[in-house]
């Protein structure tokens, strides 16, 4: 590994210098046998996240990097930046080029599997604050599992015992033999009758954040419950419906174009028998709802929210097991311009992680440039 690497971004202002890269070994010799992956683990995608902490509190003269380094087992990278944290700007405004320098990656990996499965980079800023950049391969764990991992790491760092030990047996989500597919699972390609793919080839996408405060969400939910179609609705459901319709309007699909919304849904509370709370792996399903562009645009938003709710209600023990069995045969799921995927991070608990310097003032995923 390189001993030092300077990375210049933020219009030439930010310089991140890699000071050291070490492999922190596990406290105990890990088993050498193969590790079973369930059909829900087949998500080969690097997840890059930032955890931003203000000026650190003195803990016996140890700095953040040293304390975090003394935890258990992964690739650990120590870096320094030449700026104050507040000079970076607003972290809620996506800047994948700048923020990407705060997460370690191989310089030129030939494929995603050349990246470390899990790596932590601590970048110290001149003000005393630091950013913890985490990168992990999604087939290692989903968001809920990584939340538990981070909370456990934080507890060990603070000298506390683990309250929720990891449960590593992924065979609890093994497909049945023979497979028993009892539901329709929508993963087939959608025909692009609108030729929307050409737009994405011609134009480069941009990233942007839209901030909804709690009072805004309450107003939206109240507004779309006024017609009596809905008895209740969640913030996720109303935002998903709004975003899906707005995107469909902006892309100007042919009215007969099929459009699809997909969203991640945690299956832990829906499957029987229940497995241990500390399950470490992937236990989420991708739920789908599909209709024509004209149906989506002409229907009241409350009807779209209701359809999303019905999709969520479909997630039963039988549906989860049917999905796992359906995925026993590998499926090539291609991204498509008429499909939008949503994942809600607000309830994962990432922002409650405390290594001893208080909770992060910002935590979020780095969107790709």
UniProtKB/TrEMBL annotation:
Keywords: Transferase. It holds the Pfam family Transferase. GO terms for molecular function: acyltransferase activity, transferring groups other than amino-acyl groups. Belongs to the plant acyltransferase family. This is Uncharacterized protein. It comes from Papaver atlanticum. The lineage of its organism: Eukaryota, Viridiplantae, Streptophyta, Embryophyta, Tracheophyta.
């Amino acid at each position: 590994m390189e001993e030092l690497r300077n990375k210049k971004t933020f219009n030439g202002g930010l310089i991140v210098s890699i000071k050291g890269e070490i492999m922190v070994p596990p406290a105990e010799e890990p088993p050498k046998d193969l590790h079973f992956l369930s059909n829900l683990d087949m998500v080969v995608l690097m997840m890059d996240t930032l955890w931003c902490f203000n000026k650190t509190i003195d803990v016996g003269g140890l700095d953040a990097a040293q304390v975090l380094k003394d935890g258990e087992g992964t690739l650990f990278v120590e870096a320094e930046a030449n700026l104050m944290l507040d000079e970076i700007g607003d972290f809620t405004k996506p800047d994948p080029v700048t923020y990407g320098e705060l997460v370690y990656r191989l310089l030129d990996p030939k494929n995603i599997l050349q990246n470390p499965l899990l790596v932590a980079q601590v970048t110290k800023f001149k003000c005393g604050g630091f950013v913890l950049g985490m990168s992990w391969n999604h087939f290692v764990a989903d968001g809920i599992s990584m939340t538990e991992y981070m909370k456990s790491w934080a507890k060990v760092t603070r000298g506390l015992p683990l309250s929720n030990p990891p449960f590593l047996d992924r065979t609890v989500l093994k497909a049945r033999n023979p497979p028993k597919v009892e539901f329709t699972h929508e993963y087939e390609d959608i025909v692009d009758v609108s030729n929307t793919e050409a737009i994405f080839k011609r134009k480069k996408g941009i990233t942007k954040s839209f901030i909804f405060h709690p009072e805004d969400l309450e107003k939206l939910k109240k507004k779309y419950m006024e017609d009596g179609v809905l008895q209740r609705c969640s913030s996720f459901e109303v935002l998903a419906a709004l975003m899906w319709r707005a995107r469909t309007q902006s892309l100007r699909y042919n009215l007969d174009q099929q459009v699809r919304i997909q969203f991640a849904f945690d299956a832990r509370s829906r499957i029987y028998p229940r497995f241990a709370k500390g399950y470490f792996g992937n236990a989420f399903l991708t739920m789908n709802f599909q209709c024509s562009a004209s149906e989506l645009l002409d229907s009241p938003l409350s009807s779209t929210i209701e359809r999303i709710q019905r999709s969520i209600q479909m997630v039963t023990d039988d549906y989860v097991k049917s999905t796992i069995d359906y995925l026993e045969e590998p499926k090539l799921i291609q991204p498509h311009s008429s499909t939008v995927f949503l994942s809600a991070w607000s309830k994962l608990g990432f922002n409650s992680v405390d290594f001893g310097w208080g909770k992060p003032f910002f935590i979020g995923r780095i969107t790709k440039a």
